[in-house]
Amino acid sequence: xxxxxxxxxxxxxxxxxxxxxxxxxxxxxxxxxxxxxxxxxxxxxxxxxxxxxxxxxxxxxxxxxxxxxxxxxxxxxxxxxxxxxxxxxxxxxxxxxxxxxxxxxxxxxxxxxxxxxxxxxxxxxxxxxxxxxxxxxxxxxxxxxxxxxxxxxxxxxxxxxxxxxxxxxxxxxxxxxxxxxxxxxxxxxxxxxxxxxxxxxxxxxxxxxxxxxxxxxxxxxxxxxxxxxxxxxxxxxxxxxxxxxxxxx
Length: 249
Hints:
This protein is α/β, with parallel strands linked by helices. Helix content is about 50%, strand content about 15%.
């Protein structure tokens, strides 16, 4: 029986962040784990930068709108929701993915796709070291030729992994998942950005005190100064948020 979009999406209260939907759940990992093997899910990890991109990129906005689960990944999104009366906790995509992987049932498998050559394979090795019982079905880096991309899709079609983590950066990973998720219709697809770099040890996450004080973006900028142009989205998001709040009755 065909499931409607409203039935397939998170059974929860919802909010919007500058037009992008957000699902408000108490336990995002458990919601996903309850659907392993049963329901395909596209997880979008929404932050301020992505919300601003969605305003200018209709294809990205459509993907976010159709995703079964959109979580509050960024501090800006969380603060925006707090100002609108939604007392939510930030759920970073990397932490969501880690919790899901640690709690996967024994018969579930995971596939890592994205990152630089060598990084994704190292991330898989580190995960296997952390959890020898985790079944990693395969890995592929994010710089594949057209022929290699076709081979990857055939591999996924054959393996049918339970969870597919895609680290291609925003918005490429969201658009790629939306385009190809039909080949593994019961998989949980999560866009994980630069998580493979963290797991592989090629980059570090911001210290806890920065994350707890909504300043993780400063550490990311320190590690990757070239991101400064993209970071301009943050003050724009703040201004649009203020304007949006002022327009409320």
